[in-house]
Specification:
The complex is a heterodimer of chains A (338) and B (730). With 338 residues, chain A is of the alpha+beta class. Helix content of chain A is 33%, strand content 26%. Chain A has three domains: 2-190, no CATH class; 194-222 and 266-338, no CATH class; 233-263, no CATH class. Chain A has helices at residues 2-19, 39-57, 61-86, 210-213, 246-252, 278-294, 314-326, 331-337; strands at residues 25-27, 34-37, 89-92, 98-99, 103-111, 122-127, 139-142, 149-155, 160-163, 167-171, 178-184, 189-193, 228-234, 256-261, 267-271, 298-302, 307-311. Chain A has a five-stranded antiparallel beta sheet with strand order 2-11-10-6-7. Chain A has a four-stranded antiparallel beta sheet with strand order 1-3-5-8, with no helix packed on it. Chain A has a three-stranded mixed beta sheet with strand order 4-12-9. The longest helix of chain A is centred in the N-terminal third of the chain and has 26 residues, at 61-86. Chain B is built from 27 helices and 18 strands. In chain B, helix 14 links the parallel strand 12 and strand 13. Chain B: The chain crosses the membrane at residues 21-39, 45-64, 71-88, 94-112, 119-137, 143-162, 174-199, 612-631.
Chain lengths: 338, 730
Amino acid sequence: MHALRQFVQKQHLAWLNKRIPKADTFQLDNQSIFILPTVFGYLFLCVTIFIFLIATNYQSNILRLLSFFLLSLFIVHMFASYLNFSRLYVSLGMIKPIFAGTTAAIPLHILPSKTGTPARGTLWINFMQTQTKQKIRYQSIELDDAENIANVRYFTQTRGIYVLPRMTLQCDYPLGLFRCWTHLQFVQLITVYPSPIASKLHMDEIPQLHSDINSSSLSGKMNEQHEEFAGLNKYQIGDSLHSVAWKQMARTGQMMTKEFSGYVNPKGYLHLPIDTPIEKALGQLSYQINYCQQNNIVYGLFLPHVHIKPGQGEEHQEQCLAALASFPKTAQSILGKH
Amino acid sequence: MYTPNTFGESIANKPRSAAQNISFLLITLCFTILIATLYEAISIWILLPSVLAVILRFLLYLGLYQHVPSATMLNIIAVLAGGFLIYASTKMALLETMINMLVLASSLKIMVLHTQKDLQAILLSLVFLLGIGFVFHSDLLHLLLYITVLFLLFLTLAAHFAPKQNLAKMNKKVVLICLQALPIALLLFFAIPTLPALWHMPLPKQDTTGLTDTIKPGDIAKLGQSNELAFIATFTEASAVPHYHERYWRSLSVDAFDGVKWFVSNQQKAQQTIVSKTSTLAPKKENVINSSNKSLGKIRKVTYSIQLQKNQSHYAVSLDRPFKVHSEGTQQTFFPTADFAVHSQYPINAVGFYRVESVLHYPLKEHNLDVARYLQLPDNFHAPNAVNDTENLDSTVQHQSTLTKISNPRTQAWVKELSKIHTDRASLIAAFDAYLLAENFRYTLEPELMPNDVIDTFLFDVKSGFCSHYASALGYVLRLAGYPTRLVAGYQGGELLDDNSLSVYQYDAHAWVETYNSEQGWIRLDPTATIAPTRISAGLRDALTQSPAKDTSIFDWDYYSKVGFSQQFSSWLNHLEFGWEKEIARFNQNTDGDLFDDILKKLGINDSITRGFLFLGVMAGIFAIYFYSGLRQKSQPDKVLKQYVKAKKLCLQQYPTLDVQIQKLPPTGFQSWLEGKNTDLAKHMSPITQLIVSHLYMRKSHEEHKAHIGHNELRLHVQALQQYLKQHRH
């Protein structure tokens, strides 16, 4: 049963890939729009048929006219729904990288329609998640609102640099008799860093060959317990927020950083330990990178396929984390191929 | 740069609507209107919770009350009302049970209205209720009311599915959809043939309106207070509208009298179901013109169509004497009866249409008349000088008289005296009339109650009454004197609707007497004419100046005409109603006067296949028009957008090696990317981005106004950007 379902899903996705190829912007059209009556629509049709039966049995022309009117309204609604939905013109904004296990806000831009008339109604957005069995939760955006960017929540546990799953958009406008929907595959990639797993800082002074990594050891090990407060310095951009003297700041309004004696700013390379499973190791590295960034530690990253020289700053951090995310490939190779 | 959007709840559980939701209020309003129009069919035990629900919903909307009834409370109501419904359903017609069920279900749902599903469920049941409403009311005013309700229901849906849209826009959208649906509906209506009834539907047990088969003196007076339309008669061009005194619309003849009421005996009933044998034997034209009924007037042939309001009885109307009856429309079959009336095969539960050829003043002669039947008396009284030519009258009379008590003794004595002096029928009638005039009898719509010996009381004590009193009295007197007599119930009069049409209302209901004469057949006698000549020559309204009709409702425009204002308006409405009934309510493909059919025939399209294709073609054409007018490109080349593209290009020139993703970013996305790359450049770009965003995402209404300003402003900013880039290059 499960295999069958998987097979069907696979076929469906393959069919979708053919029908709606991935793109960066979508103007919805008859290739990409699916439309079917809603449950309410079917019930509406039933009522229409019932009224027709009554009309026939009581030989009432007005009732007959009413049933035909309801029927034609149903048909006109189909066109209205379709036209409205086909006015949607969407693209994705910049997707900020996230850590696995957190929720990304995917900015979906509703662009003005090429026909000049904007789409209306409530738009329901969701990602097509084929693996997870959890109940699909839709988010809604009012197209009549002034806002034109929907931040679609995307939750994932999988690290990597990859394309988002197909995004499902659907709309019941205007009367809810029909539902238009589409499954869009955007080209934009999302970078999901490994979820940080708390660990001790492991650093090597000099990048060594793989065989040597084990022997070289914990020279730059941080020891928070042995820090001693030495005084305050004026805050400079780039200083870690961890060392800001918040109490002081609250009192004086001036931003100061605490200086610790015995605090060594270690330099070195983070690397993959051999004895840990790879995903856990990546998570630990992710944690250590964040830690270094927060504590102003200059660090490099040494992975089998990529060497990043020691450095500091957000860009450096992003580079390192991206390397972890794309492991065992390089981030560049994935982005380039794309 | 990204403004986070507030999201609603997920579809699975979306209580997107508070009690103050406008769509909830709208649907409650629709519900209120519907139950108000159907209140007659709704039993009080179902009406109670629905009124409760409406009140609750309004209180919730106003915020005066905040507690939705608990599930237990709701279940108690449901069980009680449901139990009642099951108990009562044995007595109710199917349609009534259905209405009560729908009303109960909707009112329970309205009490706890919370989710989209609730709203949709109520909406569907209301649409259904509305449909049933048309079975009960098919007049123009109810139609307009129901159209309004239907529109409101759709507006409710629209409000629900686009909650942020303003009401005017929503209105426009719903109107547009409805207008688009209308031509298709009409096309379907005219093109799809009417099917015969698939199965017999039990009818709601409605009170019969109009005449009944028993006449109790005073009964018709109740009808005299009803302003409801009874029927409309349209005369053909060739036959002039009869004079007022000729407008005696016969419905049924009543032969039995038990001292209290006149009623239709079984023999008479049998006669009424027989299709008159003479129905096809209309007198030849020459005969009609040459001969004339000496006593009554010129024999004249008239042809007219009747549009009869439903009355739940078999009785239709016709002028004496109907010969040919042609049923129009599919609803009913009408036929002339052996007692010179027109009846329908089934109770008239919808507007009925038929055409009659009558010959006015043609003798109403019956073959093998059972005279004894028309001489029956309530008790053991023997006519002194009975001029009966039948055989065993005595035994029949004795057999009939089962009452031990002598009824109306004073009248009996009076007739005994009278017939001693007036030995022939004419002088007896003259004496009766003279008595009425001498004693100053009055004609009134509000007769006093006469519980015992009604004719005695009427003739000797009260001396005022309605037409049925006079007819009863004369009928009784004539029978006492031994002349075969019967009562006829029907309508007398009618107002000119237009040159060829008469509208007759329930207050035109009338009763008169017919007495049999072997030479002339049944002769009409109308004692009311003696007392209130204007009743016959000008109608009830003139005869009764002091007592206006009472049984009026809000929807009764006739009332307003009586009150005096907007007479013009009411006559216009009458015309409209007439036209509506004629064109739509009556519409029937089988009749030859079909406009649609005529057009097709003129075009030379006769076979059904070509018609089918034509129909489909027209449908497709309509849809194509809707579709392509919707898809039509409305925008001209956008000057503002051009300026933005130019600015973006300038920025991108700074970064020649860039992947396509960045180039295709939307304005805000591009801006945030630029801020990460080059803060100075981003500073210059930022106002441009802001302008383009406000331009692109501006709602239509503002657009024209602001586009012009935006364009100039943008151009200045783009120029500044250009300058900045130039400076940096050097």
